[in-house]
Amino acid sequence: MPCENLDRVDRRYRKRYDMSMVENLKELKEKGMKKFLKNQEEKYECPECGDVISVHDRKCYSCGHVEPG
User: Fold this and answer.
1) What percentage of the chain's residues is helix, strand, coil (to nearest 5)?
2) What's residue 1's pLDDT?
3) Which residues contact 13 (CB under 8 A, 6 or more apart)?
4) Which band of pLDDT confidence, cut at 50, 70 and 90, is reported for residue 21?
5) Fewer CB within 10 A of the end CB, N or C, for the chain?
6) Is residue 44 left, alpha or beta, with left meaning phi > 0 and alpha meaning psi from -120 to 50?
7) Model pTM score
8) CA contacts within 13 A on the Cβ side of 68
9) Are the C-beta atoms of 54 and 40 separated by less than 8 Å?
10) 60: which strand partners?
11) 60/18 Cα distance (integer angstroms)
12) Per-residue pLDDT tens for 22-65?
């Protein structure tokens, strides 16, 4: 873990949002920006309108769709 603060934030995001900033950074480093962004687009794409679903509340702010969870 790079530092105590990042560790604390990462643990909180893993628990609350099922997302890891550290894992994102590792993927970015290993696979490159294009592949990382493609994976993020697929992971957070709204099934209703194709826009982005917020990691914080699982809601699409374009069409109002909310992911179960």
Assistant:
1) 55, 10, 40
2) 58
3) 19, 20, 21
4) very high
5) C
6) alpha
7) 0.76
8) 0
9) no
10) 53
11) 17
12) 999 999 999 999 999 999 999 999 999 999 999 999 999 999 99
